Amino acid sequence: MTKEIKPDRYGTHRVVEPKDVLPQAALRLDNDFSKVYDNEVLINVETLNIDSASFRQINEHAGGDPEKVKSIVMEIVRERGKMQNPVTGSGGMLFGTVEKIGSNTSKTENLATGDKIVTLVSLSLTPLYLDKVIEVHPTAQIDVKGKAILFESGVCAKLPGDMSTRLVVSVLDVAGAAPQTARLVKPDQYVLVMGGGKSGILSLCVARKVMKKSGKLIALGRSDESVERLRETGWADEVIQGDATSPLEVLKALSGVTNTRMADLVINCLNGPKTEMCSILCVRDGGTVYFFNMATSFTAATLGAEGVGMDINMIMGNGYCHDHANYTLNLIRENAQLRRIFERDFI
């Protein structure tokens, strides 16, 4: 006799292998949605927003060929029952329409069938089935036809009426960066924001808002395009061009613009690996590094700081904090320049 599966709020009932782990740590999830448990929400998926580190790795592996990217995404979902890049371990988030709401979920209070929603939990823990991948956009948004499950513990946001779907998806993909930055930045600090992508631009905007005209706000970009975008905002007091995988190069540049003081706070919003030591060397002793970069290695960061004798605070980025979706969407609403950059470059 088959043992009845009892669903729990974290979704462990969807874990196929290995057993006794949470969905994010699982190698494979059950994405057979012929049965929807009474504490689940079934979503018709229209768009996946692959996280930046994952999309960069997949795109490079595919040689920039969108058709190969499609095949890689389909294969990952076919094997894992979720969109979790086996190289980076990260996922992204999705946009879709609520098809069915379980009778035993608190989400019946806030959601209704037909609602357009953006999930605020990682695709690395979201059961997902894809019929097909329709189109790959260079902004890491992928149009698909498929279905997904939102667990009881999962968070989502309804699509607001004053923004396009693609803008909302783009913004909410990195919604945690802005409020987390607001918590960490203090007036009169020297702050270094690394990266000119979505989370970097958001963090730079918030840092300037908190610091006003005090302290010194510095931005780091690698490509000409990224540096130009950072300079265009006018929010940074200094913009450095450099490769964060070459830490001594960046260290020298930052030392010059801070007169050897270095940064009180470093916010790493890059999307590639091997940037831990650059972040660590750029902060002053006793300072703080916030790693929002999903390609960050905990081992490289902790052992690296130890190896160079740095007594610093290191915080691994949490993509979630209370009310982060509303905070970040309101930031877009109130700052016309920020909105223009997102609509031009990131959708």
Number of helices: 11
Tell me the radius of gyration. 21 Å
Structural class: alpha/beta
Q: Largest sheet, if any?
A: 6 strands, antiparallel
Strand order of the largest sheet: 6-7-3-4-5-8
CATH class of the largest domain: Alpha Beta
Number of DSSP-assigned strands: 14
Element order: H for helix, E for strand: EEEHHEEEEEHHEHEHEHEHEHEHH
CATH topology of the largest domain: Rossmann fold
CATH architecture type of the largest domain: 3-Layer(aba) Sandwich
Specify the helix fraction band.
25-40%
Q: How widely separated are the two ends?
A: 51 Å
Within CATH, the superfamily of the largest domain carries the name NAD(P)-binding Rossmann-like Domain
**Shape descriptor:** globular
- Count of structural domains: 2
Describe what you observe in this structure.
With 347 residues, this protein is of the alpha/beta class. It has helices at residues 52-61, 66-80, 165-172, 177-184, 198-211, 224-233, 247-258, 276-281, 298-307, 324-334, 336-345; strands at 15-17, 28-29, 41-50, 92-101, 116-119, 128-136, 141-150, 156-158, 190-194, 216-221, 238-241, 263-268, 283-291, 313-316. Strands 6-7-3-4-5-8 form a 6-stranded antiparallel sheet, sandwiched between helices. A 6-stranded parallel sheet has the order 11-10-9-12-13-14, sandwiched between helices. α4 (177-184) runs parallel beside α5 (198-211). The protein starts with 14 loop residues before the first strand and ends with a helix. The mean pLDDT is 95.
